[in-house]
Structure formats: structure tokens, C-alpha cells
């Protein structure tokens, strides 16, 4: 029996059969529609299953990667070795007084809409963010002047040893598009947001306004990874790219959006290498034109295609 079969047999004892996939194409699960195969693609249905998979990866020294819906992620064409875990089945949202509790696999958009239905204000900024709750905490997602750190009270995580641990927001070092979650190895499984009662009509008016702004300015008709670059101090990334006359520039199937220069869209079955090459071209051009280094907001992981 080869090593891959042994790992599969062990995973089958920890997770339901239908939630263990071998050589699964990751682009089929990602917002960007990019990415090669995962050796093992696991979709747990409980915190205990997450804990058990983490413990197995530690015991057998199996590479381990957590994956949301990829709205701010690019996976290389060679895919990811070892275990890829996706928490899409952990997607419950409920309220407790003035708090909204959302599991990691729920979309942060849906948490925002749920808060609206409960007449709770604070998550309006998230009404157009396409990522999951876990992904939103991972990068302290934000938009239109709001961000996760403004409303997060605490989270439950599975730590790198497989323990279920409560982390207060103050322990996560939430800052502009960053947190300490990537370095700690924690897997967010649940988040509690502290919100404020407000009138339904007032909350909805804000959300409608933000939605209109987003739909009018962002290229939602194509898959993308959202804003590719962080805002450089004193500048706007999109304006620098626009002023560099890069809108409409394409490499393969990837294109700098003509609607919003800060986005690179998957216009025609782009490969990850197309995306990365175009990102590097944009960075090089803006540096030459304005002397500004554009830092990626989007993460790039995985292996090159052999």
C-alpha cells in the first residue's frame, strides 16, 4: 500500500466518505476559478473533525493548507500537496442578544444580511465582501471605512496542535489587511461580532448605498480575486495603475479591469501563471512610472506546474 492510500484510509476514519476527495481540482471551489489539484480535499462538518485532521497532519507530518472560497487568493497551476481543508459545511449563523455568531465557512456577506434581519448595525461594510467569515478574520477584511476589527469580540480557533481555543479580538493583532492568524497556524471555526441595535430601514439604506457603489465600480461580471494590491501610503493603487495606462492590458486570459484598475479579472480561462505575470508587470510599470512599490493584498500559494 503506497503512502497516499494510507493517508486516505486514515482520513476516511476521521471524516465522512463524501467529504474526502482525492486529486480534486481547486479551481472548481474558488472564486477566482484558478488553481491545480489538491492531493486531498477535506470538507469537515464539525469542529471535532477539524481537530482530528489537524492532529493527523501533525502525527504523520502531512502538509496542511486551509482554504476559504479563494476570493483573495491565487493558487498556482501545480496545485497543493498534502491535505487541503475547506470549511464550507461550517456555515451556520445565529444571534445572541446584540451579537451575531457566524461559523468560519459562512460568507461574511450572509452574516451582514443576517445582522440586517435582526436589526443589528455594524456589519454593513461587509455587505459586498465575497469572502468567508474565516477569510475575513484572516486578513481583517474591510471596505468603505469599516473592518472586522471594529466589530469582532472573539473567535474560536483550532490551534496548530488541534486544540479548540477561544481567542479575544485583542489577541489577533488585527491591523490593515493583516492579523497574526497566518503566523500562529490557527484555524478560525467561529466568530462572534458585537453589534448595535438600529432601525432596519437605516441599516438597509446604508447597505443599499454600498451595494450600488460596488456594483457600479467593480467588475463583478468576471471572476477575480478582488483588490489585488494594498493601498500604498499617500496613494491609491487603482489610480496609479490607471495613470500608468494599464487598464485593458492582458496576459493570456488575465486582464487589468477596464472598469476598476485595482482589479485583475479572469476574462478568458486564465491560468495562474497568466495572473502572476500580469501582477508582476503592473508592479514593474507602476514602479518605473511613479517610483511606488505596490504590495500585493492577494495571497499566492501552491506549486508551479511541472
TrEMBL record:
- Supply one GO BP term: cell wall organization
Which InterPro entries does this one have?
A: FAD-bd_PCMH, FAD-bd_PCMH-like_sf, FAD-bd_PCMH_sub1, FAD-bd_PCMH_sub2, MurB, MurB_C, MurB_C_sf, Oxid_FAD_bind_N
Q: What's the protein name? A: UDP-N-acetylenolpyruvoylglucosamine reductase
| Gene giving rise to this polypeptide | murB
* Family as reported in the entry's similarity comment: Belongs to the MurB family.
- What Enzyme Commission number(s) apply to this enzyme? 1.3.1.98
- Domain FAD-binding PCMH-type span(s) in chain numbering: 34-198
Report the locations given in the UniProt record. Cytoplasm
Database matches in PROSITE patterns: FAD_PCMH
Cellular component, GO, one term = cytosol
Keyword terms, alphabetized: Cell cycle, Cell division, Cell shape, Cell wall biogenesis/degradation, Cytoplasm, FAD, Flavoprotein, NADP, Oxidoreductase, Peptidoglycan synthesis
The species this protein was found in: Halobacillus dabanensis
Q: What does this protein do?
A: Cell wall formation.
Cofactor(s) recorded in Swiss-Prot or TrEMBL: FAD
**Location (main, coarse):** cytoplasm
Q: In which pathway does it act?
A: Cell wall biogenesis; peptidoglycan biosynthesis
Traced from the root, the source organism's taxonomic lineage reads: Bacteria, Bacillati, Bacillota, Bacilli, Bacillales
Give the Gene Ontology MF terms in alphabetical order: FAD binding; UDP-N-acetylmuramate dehydrogenase activity
Kindly identify the residues recorded as the active site.
Answer: 177, 227 (proton donor), 297
The domain of life for this entry's organism is Bacteria
| Reaction(s) catalysed by this chain's protein | UDP-N-acetyl-alpha-D-muramate + NADP(+) = UDP-N-acetyl-3-O-(1-carboxyvinyl)-alpha-D-glucosamine + NADPH + H(+)
Annotated signal sequence is none
